[in-house]
Design brief:
Layout: E1 5-9, H1 16-27, E2 37-41, H2 47-54, E3 59-63, H3 80-85, E4 90-93, H4 96-100, H5 106-118, E5 122-127, H6 131-135, H7 139-151, E6 163-166, H8 180-198, E7 207-209, H9 215-222, E8 229-232, H10 239-254
Parallel strand pairs: 1-2, 1-8, 2-3, 3-4, 4-5, 5-6, 6-7
């Protein structure tokens, strides 16, 4: 049984006071020993304060990105050591905004995934196709290219070393989400790819869906057999909507999805 993971990516939103208030709101709907896993990814400047608020709650805190080097003249970047020493234990890598807005190629993402895993910082590796690629029936080809490029030569030996996140670019922040069938189809392909590369461990690795997830559509997406949670953007910026999705995930788990 794969434990559902509900993760909130706050992106470049919230000032200090708002970040603290959001963390405190999430604290109220989480508890140690929950039937699901919960994580939040605040802006880097707030990782320590958010981690301090959520310490002992069972909610993991992570960074939205990191550099592959230990340290150096990389103005504006943060390292795995910086994330870890401020209370972060996870990091989002390869998000479509990093790939398509900032131009990060697969080999650079791969170097960051490798560094994160070496330092016991759990990467959440994001992959996903653009609208024109889906319309051209290239979804699986794009996923194959991103998976191979981002994981080539990287060993995955246990289910807690990495999380995958399928985020169709055309569904991120657009209000349009993949249908349950589209999400399941992509997730099934990803799991098949992982099985060919890593064997039976693929059945234990979690694959999240990301792309306009909100309380209204969370249940039907989370009920898909290969969807193991959600990486949530906009709906994670309000404690009420994020906590509602958490509640939905708990109900699904308690009713024995698998």
């Amino acid at each position: 049984m794969r434990k559902l993971l509900i993760a909130g990516n706050w992106k470049m939103y919230k000032d200090r006071g708002e970040a603290i208030a959001l963390a405190e709101g999430i604290l109220e709907c989480s508890s140690v020993g929950d039937s699901i896993d919960i994580a939040v990814f605040p802006p880097a400047v707030f990782i320590k304060e958010v981690a301090d608020i959520l310490r002992g709650s069972g909610v993991a805190v992570g960074a939205q990105n990191m550099h592959a080097e230990e340290e150096g003249a990389f103005t504006g970047e943060i390292s795995s050591k910086m994330v870890l020493t401020t209370g972060g234990i996870m990091v989002i890598l390869g998000h479509s905004e990093r790939r398509n807005v900032f131009g990060e190629p697969n080999d650079f993402i791969r170097s960051k995934v490798k560094k994160a895993m070496t330092d016991n910082l759990m990467p959440v590796l994001c992959i996903g196709e653009k609208l024109e690629e889906r319309e051209a029936n290239r979804t699986e080809a794009v996923l194959n290219e991103q998976l191979d490029g981002s994981l080539r030569g990287i060993s995955v030996k246990d289910a807690d070393s990495i999380v995958l996140a399928y985020e169709p670019v055309w569904a991120i922040g657009t209000g349009v989400n993949a249908t349950p069938e589209q999400a399941q189809g992509a997730h099934a392909f990803i799991r098949s790819w992982l099985r060919e590369r890593y064997g039976d461990i693929a059945d234990k690795l979690r694959i999240l869906y990301g792309g306009s997830v909100k309380p209204a559509n969370a249940e039907v997406l989370l009920l898909q057999p290969d969807v193991d949670g959600a990486l949530i953007g906009g709906a994670s910026l309000k404690a009420e909507s994020f906590c509602e999705i958490i509640s939905i995930a708990k109900t699904i788990t308690n009713e024995a999805k698998w």
